[in-house]
Amino acid sequence: MEHITSTPTAKAPDERFTGDVYLNPIETPTDPARFASALVRFTPGARTSWHSHANGQTLYITDGIGLVGTRDGSVARVSAGQTVKCPPGEEHWHGATDTTFMAHIAMVVGDTDGDGTTWLEPVTDEQYTHALNSTNGS
Questions:
Q1: Would 1 be classed as within a structural domain?
Q2: Is residue 99 in some structural domain?
Q3: pLDDT tens-digit readout, 84-124
Q4: Where would I find the beta strands (DSSP E) of the chain?
Q5: d(CA 50, CA 57)
Q6: Phi then psi for 71, rounded to 5 degrees?
Q7: How many Å apart are CA 127 and CA 75, to the nearest integer?
Q8: Structurally, how many domains does the chain consist of?
Q9: What is the share, in percent, of the chain residues with pLDDT greater than 90?
Q10: What is the pTM of this model?
């Protein structure tokens, strides 16, 4: 058994996120393991860039209210206790609403070259506003 009493909080890299986002690793795999997880905290308005995962991603919302959007325009408004599963290869983004913090545990199973994430362009302010407007009150 390994008992980890704390992990350092790091600011997420600006080239992959818009706004202030903070990460605490939970599981960083070493060979042969490929499962990785982190607690990710988004300040109001903060979000990931578009991205996909070779083996999919599971998000478990732990606090606040957020959004998860896909390229086809689907947007889910999520809150604490809910889970979202993004299938392999699906381009998506996730983040907080404009007025609330949101935190989730992000879980992925990596591939042989790392965590299997392909990072793409930032979500534009227009895309984000459209997602907010399409889920207000939902």
A1: no
A2: yes
A3: 999 999 999 999 999 999 999 999 998 777 788 999 999 99
A4: 10-11, 17-18, 21-27, 35-42, 47-48, 51-53, 57-70, 75-79, 83-86, 92-96, 102-109, 117-119
A5: 13
A6: -60, -30
A7: 11
A8: 1
A9: 81
A10: 0.93
Q: Hey, which residues does 65 pair with through a beta bridge? A: 79
| pLDDT value of residue 114 | 75
Does some domain include residue 2? Answer: no
User: The domain that contains 118 carries what CATH number?
Assistant: 2.60.120.10
The tens digit of pLDDT for each residue in 31-44 reads 788 899 999 999 99
For 30, counting Cβ atoms within 10 Å of its Cβ (0-12 exposed, 13-18 middle, 19+ buried), the class is exposed
Q: What range does the domain containing 82 cover?
A: 10-135
Give the type of residue at 6.
S
Tell me, yes or no, whether 105 lies in a domain.
yes
